[in-house]
Request: fold
Amino acid sequence: MIESRSRREFEEIMAERDVVKGLNELDQLVKEAKLRMQSGEDAPLAQGLHELPPEQLFLAHLAPVMKEAESKLEADISHMEAENMQLLHSMRQSEDEVDKMALELATVIKDLEAASDVMGHALDGVNMKAEIRTVDEGIDAKDTGRASRL
Reply:
């Protein structure tokens, strides 16, 4: 009776703590360690924190902060690159518009030069200054007449 009760409790404890699985994992670790020893591979040495140099401790504490800063900077760079691409595209469109306007302006200038040449040939021998003064005096006279009526 005591023996059967002890066996039952032992089996319950074995099942609760999953002892068989733990032992299997331990066996696997021992096999891997033996293979490493046979192959001459060094196992990493466990070292206490008090044995680490200050620089290594400092860097260990900074690593998460630096990783976060690096991620933020990479995101900022990616955002800036996208923004730069948009600005470059906009700048190229503006350059194209300026080139188009320059061509249109060159066409207008050629047209004005042609019109000037035509007008120059049509007005050969005409004293433009005298004509302009006459037209200007006529306009002034009309304006003076209107002003006196008001």
User: Anything to note?
Assistant: The chain has a mean pLDDT of 84. The chain has two domains: 1-44, 56-150.
